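Predict structure. Chain length: 461.
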Amino acid sequence: MTDTPVSNTPIEITIIGGGLAGSEAAWQLAQNNIKVKLYEMRPSTPTGTHLTGDLAELVCSNSLGSNLPDRASGVLKNELRHLNSMLLECAEATSLPAGAALAVDREAFAHMVTEKIQSHPNIEIIRAEMKEIPQTPVIVASGPLTSESLSQSIAKLSGEEHLFFFDAIAPIVHAESINMDIAFRASRYCKGDSEEGDYINCPFTKDEYYAFVHALQSAERIELRSFEVATLTSGAGVKAGQFFEGCLPIEIIAERGTDSLAFGPMRPVGLRDPRTPAGKRPYAVVQLRQDNLAGSLYNLVGFQTNLKFPEQKRVLRMIPGLENAEFERFGQMHRNTFIASPKLLRPTLQHITRDDLFFAGQITGVEGYMGNIATGLLAGINAARLFKHKMLITLPRETMLGALCHYVTNASLKDFQPMKANFGILPQLELDKKTGRRERGQLYADRAANVLDRYITSVVE
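Prediction complete.
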Protein backbone atom coordinates (compact mmCIF):
# COMPACT_ATOMS: atom_id res chain seq x y z
CA MET A 1 0.00 0.00 0.00
CA THR A 2 1.20 3.50 -0.75
CA ASP A 3 0.01 6.89 0.41
CA THR A 4 2.22 8.99 -1.89
CA PRO A 5 -0.05 11.57 -3.56
CA VAL A 6 0.63 13.56 -6.70
CA SER A 7 1.43 17.20 -6.02
CA ASN A 8 -1.81 18.58 -7.41
CA THR A 9 -5.16 16.98 -8.06
CA PRO A 10 -5.31 16.57 -11.86
CA ILE A 11 -8.11 18.03 -13.93
CA GLU A 12 -8.37 14.70 -15.70
CA ILE A 13 -6.81 11.29 -16.16
CA THR A 14 -6.15 9.44 -19.41
CA ILE A 15 -7.20 5.84 -19.88
CA ILE A 16 -5.77 3.94 -22.84
CA GLY A 17 -8.12 1.22 -24.03
CA GLY A 18 -11.89 0.88 -24.00
CA GLY A 19 -12.07 -2.83 -23.28
CA LEU A 20 -13.31 -4.47 -20.09
CA ALA A 21 -10.60 -3.08 -17.80
CA GLY A 22 -10.52 0.40 -19.33
CA SER A 23 -14.29 0.79 -19.26
CA GLU A 24 -14.55 -0.31 -15.62
CA ALA A 25 -11.65 1.95 -14.62
CA ALA A 26 -13.23 4.92 -16.40
CA TRP A 27 -16.52 4.35 -14.59
CA GLN A 28 -14.91 4.07 -11.16
CA LEU A 29 -12.97 7.31 -11.68
CA ALA A 30 -15.97 9.16 -13.09
CA GLN A 31 -18.11 8.06 -10.15
CA ASN A 32 -15.43 9.59 -7.91
CA ASN A 33 -15.78 12.94 -9.73
CA ILE A 34 -12.52 12.56 -11.67
CA LYS A 35 -12.60 13.73 -15.28
CA VAL A 36 -11.61 10.97 -17.70
CA LYS A 37 -10.35 10.96 -21.28
CA LEU A 38 -10.87 7.42 -22.55
CA TYR A 39 -8.85 6.62 -25.68
CA GLU A 40 -10.12 3.80 -27.87
CA MET A 41 -8.55 3.36 -31.30
CA ARG A 42 -11.36 1.25 -32.72
CA PRO A 43 -13.03 1.44 -35.18
CA SER A 44 -10.68 3.77 -37.07
CA THR A 45 -7.72 1.52 -36.22
CA PRO A 46 -8.88 -2.13 -36.24
CA THR A 47 -7.29 -4.90 -34.20
CA GLY A 48 -7.88 -7.78 -36.60
CA THR A 49 -10.06 -9.52 -34.02
CA HIS A 50 -12.71 -7.03 -32.88
CA LEU A 51 -15.75 -6.64 -35.11
CA THR A 52 -17.21 -3.36 -33.84
CA GLY A 53 -16.25 -0.06 -32.27
CA ASP A 54 -18.24 -0.77 -29.10
CA LEU A 55 -16.53 -0.55 -25.75
CA ALA A 56 -16.05 -3.78 -23.81
CA GLU A 57 -16.55 -5.96 -26.90
CA LEU A 58 -16.04 -9.65 -26.14
CA VAL A 59 -14.03 -11.34 -28.87
CA CYS A 60 -13.58 -14.85 -27.47
CA SER A 61 -16.19 -16.71 -25.43
CA ASN A 62 -19.37 -15.01 -24.24
CA SER A 63 -19.09 -16.72 -20.85
CA LEU A 64 -17.82 -14.83 -17.81
CA GLY A 65 -17.35 -18.03 -15.84
CA SER A 66 -19.19 -19.78 -13.05
CA ASN A 67 -21.75 -17.98 -10.94
CA LEU A 68 -21.62 -20.59 -8.19
CA PRO A 69 -20.53 -19.01 -4.89
CA ASP A 70 -18.16 -21.90 -4.09
CA ARG A 71 -16.20 -21.59 -7.34
CA ALA A 72 -13.26 -19.25 -7.83
CA SER A 73 -15.01 -17.22 -10.51
CA GLY A 74 -18.08 -16.93 -8.31
CA VAL A 75 -15.95 -15.66 -5.43
CA LEU A 76 -14.47 -12.96 -7.66
CA LYS A 77 -17.93 -11.94 -8.88
CA ASN A 78 -19.17 -11.60 -5.29
CA GLU A 79 -16.21 -9.34 -4.51
CA LEU A 80 -16.99 -7.18 -7.54
CA ARG A 81 -20.64 -6.90 -6.52
CA HIS A 82 -19.45 -5.70 -3.11
CA LEU A 83 -17.19 -3.15 -4.82
CA ASN A 84 -19.96 -1.93 -7.18
CA SER A 85 -18.65 -3.10 -10.55
CA MET A 86 -20.58 -1.46 -13.37
CA LEU A 87 -19.56 -4.07 -15.96
CA LEU A 88 -20.73 -6.96 -13.82
CA GLU A 89 -24.06 -5.18 -13.45
CA CYS A 90 -24.27 -4.89 -17.25
CA ALA A 91 -23.34 -8.55 -17.66
CA GLU A 92 -26.10 -9.68 -15.33
CA ALA A 93 -28.59 -7.41 -17.11
CA THR A 94 -27.74 -8.99 -20.49
CA SER A 95 -27.28 -12.58 -19.33
CA LEU A 96 -28.29 -15.66 -21.29
CA PRO A 97 -29.16 -19.18 -20.10
CA ALA A 98 -25.86 -20.99 -19.43
CA GLY A 99 -26.42 -23.36 -16.55
CA ALA A 100 -24.33 -22.30 -13.56
CA ALA A 101 -22.25 -19.89 -15.66
CA LEU A 102 -22.77 -16.20 -16.41
CA ALA A 103 -22.97 -15.87 -20.19
CA VAL A 104 -24.06 -12.72 -21.98
CA ASP A 105 -25.46 -11.54 -25.26
CA ARG A 106 -22.15 -10.03 -26.34
CA GLU A 107 -23.74 -7.38 -28.55
CA ALA A 108 -26.25 -6.25 -25.91
CA PHE A 109 -23.55 -6.26 -23.24
CA ALA A 110 -21.16 -4.08 -25.25
CA HIS A 111 -23.99 -1.72 -26.24
CA MET A 112 -25.03 -1.25 -22.61
CA VAL A 113 -21.48 -0.58 -21.41
CA THR A 114 -20.88 1.85 -24.29
CA GLU A 115 -24.11 3.73 -23.57
CA LYS A 116 -23.28 4.08 -19.88
CA ILE A 117 -19.77 5.34 -20.56
CA GLN A 118 -20.88 7.72 -23.32
CA SER A 119 -23.60 9.25 -21.16
CA HIS A 120 -21.44 9.89 -18.09
CA PRO A 121 -20.71 13.63 -17.77
CA ASN A 122 -17.20 13.00 -16.44
CA ILE A 123 -16.06 10.79 -19.34
CA GLU A 124 -14.93 11.88 -22.79
CA ILE A 125 -14.35 9.11 -25.35
CA ILE A 126 -11.63 9.87 -27.88
CA ARG A 127 -11.59 7.62 -30.93
CA ALA A 128 -7.87 7.70 -31.67
CA GLU A 129 -4.81 5.58 -31.15
CA MET A 130 -2.63 6.59 -28.20
CA LYS A 131 0.86 5.79 -29.47
CA GLU A 132 2.87 6.77 -26.40
CA ILE A 133 2.42 6.71 -22.66
CA PRO A 134 1.78 10.33 -21.64
CA GLN A 135 3.63 12.00 -18.78
CA THR A 136 0.29 12.95 -17.25
CA PRO A 137 -1.73 10.59 -14.99
CA VAL A 138 -2.74 7.51 -16.98
CA ILE A 139 -4.15 4.00 -16.74
CA VAL A 140 -2.88 1.69 -19.47
CA ALA A 141 -5.61 -0.87 -20.19
CA SER A 142 -4.80 -1.45 -23.85
CA GLY A 143 -5.39 -5.17 -23.59
CA PRO A 144 -3.86 -8.18 -25.29
CA LEU A 145 -3.96 -6.52 -28.73
CA THR A 146 -1.93 -3.47 -27.78
CA SER A 147 -0.78 -1.61 -30.90
CA GLU A 148 2.81 -1.84 -32.05
CA SER A 149 3.49 1.85 -31.34
CA LEU A 150 2.17 1.72 -27.79
CA SER A 151 3.96 -1.58 -27.20
CA GLN A 152 7.24 0.08 -28.11
CA SER A 153 6.48 2.98 -25.76
CA ILE A 154 5.78 0.56 -22.90
CA ALA A 155 8.96 -1.39 -23.66
CA LYS A 156 10.98 1.83 -23.67
CA LEU A 157 9.54 2.85 -20.30
CA SER A 158 10.00 -0.54 -18.67
CA GLY A 159 13.37 -1.45 -20.11
CA GLU A 160 12.09 -5.01 -20.50
CA GLU A 161 11.04 -6.98 -23.54
CA HIS A 162 7.38 -7.83 -23.65
CA LEU A 163 6.07 -11.30 -23.13
CA PHE A 164 3.71 -12.76 -25.68
CA PHE A 165 1.42 -15.72 -25.92
CA PHE A 166 -1.21 -16.75 -28.42
CA ASP A 167 -4.92 -16.98 -27.80
CA ALA A 168 -7.57 -18.56 -29.99
CA ILE A 169 -11.30 -17.94 -30.36
CA ALA A 170 -14.06 -20.43 -31.04
CA PRO A 171 -16.36 -20.64 -34.08
CA ILE A 172 -20.00 -19.53 -34.00
CA VAL A 173 -22.78 -21.26 -35.95
CA HIS A 174 -26.35 -20.31 -36.86
CA ALA A 175 -28.88 -22.13 -34.68
CA GLU A 176 -31.19 -22.93 -37.58
CA SER A 177 -28.41 -24.94 -39.25
CA ILE A 178 -28.03 -27.32 -36.27
CA ASN A 179 -29.66 -30.73 -36.82
CA MET A 180 -31.78 -31.17 -33.71
CA ASP A 181 -32.72 -34.70 -34.79
CA ILE A 182 -29.21 -35.59 -33.66
CA ALA A 183 -28.24 -32.82 -31.24
CA PHE A 184 -30.16 -32.44 -27.98
CA ARG A 185 -30.66 -29.82 -25.30
CA ALA A 186 -29.35 -30.48 -21.80
CA SER A 187 -27.14 -29.10 -19.06
CA ARG A 188 -24.65 -31.33 -17.29
CA TYR A 189 -26.30 -33.23 -14.45
CA CYS A 190 -29.56 -31.46 -15.42
CA LYS A 191 -28.35 -28.17 -13.92
CA GLY A 192 -29.61 -25.07 -15.70
CA ASP A 193 -32.20 -22.35 -15.91
CA SER A 194 -34.52 -24.08 -18.38
CA GLU A 195 -36.24 -27.46 -18.21
CA GLU A 196 -34.81 -28.48 -21.58
CA GLY A 197 -31.28 -27.50 -20.67
CA ASP A 198 -29.17 -24.47 -21.49
CA TYR A 199 -26.76 -26.12 -23.95
CA ILE A 200 -27.12 -27.84 -27.30
CA ASN A 201 -25.13 -31.07 -27.23
CA CYS A 202 -23.69 -32.92 -30.22
CA PRO A 203 -23.05 -36.56 -29.16
CA PHE A 204 -20.35 -38.81 -30.63
CA THR A 205 -20.11 -42.56 -30.84
CA LYS A 206 -16.63 -44.00 -30.36
CA ASP A 207 -16.09 -44.43 -34.11
CA GLU A 208 -17.36 -40.91 -34.88
CA TYR A 209 -15.04 -39.46 -32.24
CA TYR A 210 -11.90 -41.18 -33.53
CA ALA A 211 -12.68 -40.19 -37.11
CA PHE A 212 -13.09 -36.59 -35.96
CA VAL A 213 -9.81 -36.59 -34.01
CA HIS A 214 -7.93 -38.05 -36.97
CA ALA A 215 -9.33 -35.29 -39.20
CA LEU A 216 -8.27 -32.66 -36.67
CA GLN A 217 -4.76 -34.02 -36.42
CA SER A 218 -4.24 -33.98 -40.19
CA ALA A 219 -6.06 -30.72 -41.02
CA GLU A 220 -4.16 -27.71 -42.39
CA ARG A 221 -3.47 -24.85 -40.01
CA ILE A 222 -2.83 -21.16 -40.52
CA GLU A 223 0.92 -20.53 -40.48
CA LEU A 224 2.37 -18.20 -37.89
CA ARG A 225 3.79 -15.06 -39.41
CA SER A 226 7.54 -14.58 -39.02
CA PHE A 227 7.28 -11.49 -36.80
CA GLU A 228 4.91 -13.32 -34.47
CA VAL A 229 7.32 -16.21 -34.02
CA ALA A 230 10.16 -13.76 -33.39
CA THR A 231 8.29 -11.89 -30.67
CA LEU A 232 7.36 -15.12 -29.00
CA THR A 233 10.97 -16.24 -28.71
CA SER A 234 12.05 -12.89 -27.24
CA GLY A 235 9.83 -13.04 -24.17
CA ALA A 236 11.12 -14.35 -20.88
CA GLY A 237 9.79 -17.81 -20.20
CA VAL A 238 7.78 -18.00 -23.42
CA LYS A 239 8.75 -20.19 -26.37
CA ALA A 240 7.77 -19.92 -30.02
CA GLY A 241 4.30 -21.22 -30.74
CA GLN A 242 3.30 -21.47 -27.08
CA PHE A 243 -0.35 -21.07 -26.14
CA PHE A 244 -1.84 -20.17 -22.79
CA GLU A 245 -2.95 -23.50 -21.34
CA GLY A 246 -6.54 -22.40 -20.78
CA CYS A 247 -7.02 -21.43 -24.43
CA LEU A 248 -5.36 -24.31 -26.28
CA PRO A 249 -6.71 -24.85 -29.81
CA ILE A 250 -8.51 -28.16 -30.21
CA GLU A 251 -5.97 -29.37 -32.77
CA ILE A 252 -3.15 -28.86 -30.24
CA ILE A 253 -5.09 -30.80 -27.60
CA ALA A 254 -5.69 -33.59 -30.14
CA GLU A 255 -1.93 -33.91 -30.65
CA ARG A 256 -1.48 -34.81 -26.99
CA GLY A 257 -3.30 -38.09 -27.39
CA THR A 258 -6.27 -39.63 -29.15
CA ASP A 259 -8.50 -39.42 -26.08
CA SER A 260 -7.27 -36.04 -24.83
CA LEU A 261 -10.32 -34.20 -26.20
CA ALA A 262 -12.70 -36.75 -24.68
CA PHE A 263 -11.20 -35.93 -21.28
CA GLY A 264 -11.03 -32.21 -22.04
CA PRO A 265 -13.48 -29.92 -23.86
CA MET A 266 -15.42 -32.91 -25.26
CA ARG A 267 -15.87 -34.74 -21.96
CA PRO A 268 -19.38 -36.27 -21.79
CA VAL A 269 -19.81 -36.41 -18.00
CA GLY A 270 -23.25 -35.51 -16.70
CA LEU A 271 -24.96 -35.93 -20.10
CA ARG A 272 -27.18 -38.67 -21.50
CA ASP A 273 -28.06 -39.11 -25.17
CA PRO A 274 -31.88 -39.30 -25.42
CA ARG A 275 -31.61 -41.00 -28.83
CA THR A 276 -30.34 -44.16 -27.14
CA PRO A 277 -32.85 -46.56 -25.54
CA ALA A 278 -31.40 -46.31 -22.04
CA GLY A 279 -30.19 -42.73 -22.26
CA LYS A 280 -26.58 -43.82 -22.59
CA ARG A 281 -23.74 -41.39 -22.03
CA PRO A 282 -22.06 -40.42 -25.35
CA TYR A 283 -18.43 -41.35 -25.92
CA ALA A 284 -17.72 -37.63 -26.35
CA VAL A 285 -19.76 -34.48 -26.84
CA VAL A 286 -19.43 -30.99 -28.26
CA GLN A 287 -21.48 -28.41 -26.36
CA LEU A 288 -22.89 -25.30 -28.00
CA ARG A 289 -23.74 -22.26 -25.88
CA GLN A 290 -26.20 -19.52 -26.82
CA ASP A 291 -24.30 -16.46 -28.05
CA ASN A 292 -26.98 -13.79 -28.52
CA LEU A 293 -30.28 -12.86 -26.92
CA ALA A 294 -32.30 -13.90 -29.96
CA GLY A 295 -30.93 -17.42 -29.67
CA SER A 296 -29.97 -17.43 -33.34
CA LEU A 297 -26.24 -17.93 -32.77
CA TYR A 298 -24.36 -20.57 -30.80
CA ASN A 299 -20.64 -20.88 -30.07
CA LEU A 300 -18.74 -24.16 -29.81
CA VAL A 301 -17.67 -24.31 -26.16
CA GLY A 302 -13.91 -24.76 -25.71
CA PHE A 303 -13.38 -25.14 -29.46
CA GLN A 304 -10.78 -22.47 -30.11
CA THR A 305 -8.92 -23.31 -33.28
CA ASN A 306 -6.34 -22.08 -35.77
CA LEU A 307 -7.31 -24.34 -38.66
CA LYS A 308 -7.64 -22.73 -42.07
CA PHE A 309 -11.21 -21.60 -42.67
CA PRO A 310 -12.05 -24.20 -45.38
CA GLU A 311 -10.64 -26.89 -43.08
CA GLN A 312 -12.79 -25.67 -40.21
CA LYS A 313 -15.88 -26.00 -42.37
CA ARG A 314 -14.87 -29.51 -43.46
CA VAL A 315 -13.76 -30.88 -40.09
CA LEU A 316 -16.36 -29.22 -37.86
CA ARG A 317 -19.14 -30.48 -40.10
CA MET A 318 -18.04 -33.97 -39.02
CA ILE A 319 -19.55 -33.17 -35.61
CA PRO A 320 -22.87 -35.05 -35.33
CA GLY A 321 -25.65 -32.48 -35.74
CA LEU A 322 -23.41 -29.93 -37.50
CA GLU A 323 -23.18 -31.68 -40.85
CA ASN A 324 -24.93 -28.68 -42.48
CA ALA A 325 -23.69 -26.01 -40.09
CA GLU A 326 -23.56 -22.42 -41.33
CA PHE A 327 -20.80 -20.40 -39.70
CA GLU A 328 -21.27 -16.83 -38.51
CA ARG A 329 -17.60 -16.70 -37.51
CA PHE A 330 -14.72 -19.10 -37.87
CA GLY A 331 -12.20 -19.63 -35.12
CA GLN A 332 -8.91 -17.79 -35.27
CA MET A 333 -5.73 -17.21 -33.33
CA HIS A 334 -4.35 -13.85 -32.32
CA ARG A 335 -1.36 -12.53 -30.44
CA ASN A 336 -1.84 -11.50 -26.84
CA THR A 337 0.57 -9.15 -25.10
CA PHE A 338 1.36 -8.84 -21.42
CA ILE A 339 4.06 -7.05 -19.46
CA ALA A 340 6.57 -8.42 -16.97
CA SER A 341 4.36 -7.34 -14.07
CA PRO A 342 6.50 -8.91 -11.29
CA LYS A 343 9.26 -6.45 -12.20
CA LEU A 344 7.10 -3.50 -13.19
CA LEU A 345 4.03 -3.25 -10.94
CA ARG A 346 3.09 -2.88 -7.29
CA PRO A 347 0.04 -4.70 -5.87
CA THR A 348 -1.83 -1.38 -6.18
CA LEU A 349 -1.33 -1.79 -9.97
CA GLN A 350 0.95 1.25 -10.04
CA HIS A 351 4.18 1.24 -12.02
CA ILE A 352 7.23 0.88 -9.76
CA THR A 353 8.74 4.22 -10.86
CA ARG A 354 5.62 6.36 -11.40
CA ASP A 355 2.88 6.80 -8.85
CA ASP A 356 0.47 8.21 -11.44
CA LEU A 357 0.92 5.38 -13.98
CA PHE A 358 -1.37 2.36 -13.55
CA PHE A 359 -1.83 -0.80 -15.59
CA ALA A 360 -5.01 -2.88 -15.67
CA GLY A 361 -6.52 -5.81 -17.51
CA GLN A 362 -4.97 -8.61 -19.49
CA ILE A 363 -1.81 -6.66 -20.22
CA THR A 364 -0.88 -7.16 -16.54
CA GLY A 365 -0.98 -10.96 -16.85
CA VAL A 366 -4.43 -11.40 -15.36
CA GLU A 367 -6.45 -13.85 -17.43
CA GLY A 368 -10.21 -14.10 -17.94
CA TYR A 369 -12.96 -11.56 -18.44
CA MET A 370 -13.70 -11.16 -14.75
CA GLY A 371 -10.03 -10.71 -13.90
CA ASN A 372 -9.82 -7.93 -16.48
CA ILE A 373 -12.87 -6.19 -15.09
CA ALA A 374 -11.61 -6.61 -11.53
CA THR A 375 -8.17 -5.09 -12.16
CA GLY A 376 -9.80 -2.21 -14.05
CA LEU A 377 -11.99 -1.58 -11.03
CA LEU A 378 -9.03 -1.64 -8.64
CA ALA A 379 -6.88 0.61 -10.85
CA GLY A 380 -9.76 3.09 -11.14
CA ILE A 381 -10.41 3.14 -7.41
CA ASN A 382 -6.73 3.49 -6.57
CA ALA A 383 -6.16 6.26 -9.12
CA ALA A 384 -9.10 8.18 -7.64
CA ARG A 385 -7.75 7.69 -4.12
CA LEU A 386 -4.29 8.83 -5.19
CA PHE A 387 -5.63 12.06 -6.63
CA LYS A 388 -7.71 12.64 -3.48
CA HIS A 389 -4.64 12.10 -1.27
CA LYS A 390 -6.00 8.93 0.31
CA MET A 391 -4.23 5.70 1.14
CA LEU A 392 -4.27 3.32 -1.79
CA ILE A 393 -5.82 -0.13 -1.55
CA THR A 394 -3.85 -3.36 -1.47
CA LEU A 395 -6.52 -6.01 -1.07
CA PRO A 396 -5.74 -8.91 1.30
CA ARG A 397 -4.42 -12.08 -0.33
CA GLU A 398 -7.34 -14.02 1.16
CA THR A 399 -9.61 -12.25 -1.34
CA MET A 400 -9.62 -13.48 -4.92
CA LEU A 401 -8.79 -10.07 -6.39
CA GLY A 402 -6.07 -9.53 -3.82
CA ALA A 403 -4.59 -12.93 -4.65
CA LEU A 404 -4.64 -12.19 -8.39
CA CYS A 405 -2.86 -8.86 -7.91
CA HIS A 406 -0.34 -10.48 -5.57
CA TYR A 407 0.38 -13.21 -8.12
CA VAL A 408 1.01 -10.91 -11.08
CA THR A 409 3.23 -8.61 -9.02
CA ASN A 410 5.17 -11.28 -7.09
CA ALA A 411 5.47 -14.35 -9.32
CA SER A 412 8.83 -15.61 -10.50
CA LEU A 413 9.53 -13.94 -13.82
CA LYS A 414 11.28 -17.07 -15.06
CA ASP A 415 8.00 -18.93 -15.49
CA PHE A 416 5.50 -16.03 -15.26
CA GLN A 417 2.34 -16.87 -17.20
CA PRO A 418 -1.15 -15.31 -17.28
CA MET A 419 -3.31 -16.36 -14.36
CA LYS A 420 -7.06 -16.46 -13.87
CA ALA A 421 -9.05 -16.70 -10.65
CA ASN A 422 -8.49 -20.04 -8.92
CA PHE A 423 -8.30 -21.31 -5.35
CA GLY A 424 -4.67 -22.35 -5.82
CA ILE A 425 -3.43 -18.74 -5.58
CA LEU A 426 -5.13 -18.14 -2.21
CA PRO A 427 -3.34 -18.76 1.09
CA GLN A 428 -4.17 -22.35 1.93
CA LEU A 429 -6.61 -23.29 4.67
CA GLU A 430 -5.80 -26.16 7.00
CA LEU A 431 -8.55 -28.60 6.11
CA ASP A 432 -9.36 -32.17 6.92
CA LYS A 433 -8.44 -34.56 4.10
CA LYS A 434 -12.06 -35.69 4.03
CA THR A 435 -13.29 -32.19 3.16
CA GLY A 436 -15.04 -32.38 -0.21
CA ARG A 437 -14.33 -30.10 -3.15
CA ARG A 438 -17.56 -28.13 -2.88
CA GLU A 439 -17.23 -27.76 0.89
CA ARG A 440 -13.61 -26.68 0.48
CA GLY A 441 -14.62 -24.09 -2.10
CA GLN A 442 -17.31 -22.71 0.18
CA LEU A 443 -14.84 -22.35 3.04
CA TYR A 444 -12.49 -20.33 0.86
CA ALA A 445 -15.44 -18.26 -0.37
CA ASP A 446 -16.64 -17.54 3.16
CA ARG A 447 -13.17 -16.50 4.28
CA ALA A 448 -12.75 -14.21 1.25
CA ALA A 449 -16.09 -12.50 1.94
CA ASN A 450 -15.35 -12.00 5.64
CA VAL A 451 -11.85 -10.65 4.99
CA LEU A 452 -13.11 -8.24 2.34
CA ASP A 453 -15.86 -6.95 4.65
CA ARG A 454 -13.38 -6.30 7.45
CA TYR A 455 -10.87 -4.67 5.10
CA ILE A 456 -13.40 -2.30 3.56
CA THR A 457 -14.69 -1.33 6.97
CA SER A 458 -11.23 -0.61 8.35
CA VAL A 459 -9.46 0.93 5.36
CA VAL A 460 -11.77 2.28 2.66
CA GLU A 461 -13.24 5.66 3.41
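Summary: The chain has two domains: 12-162+339-458, 169-335.
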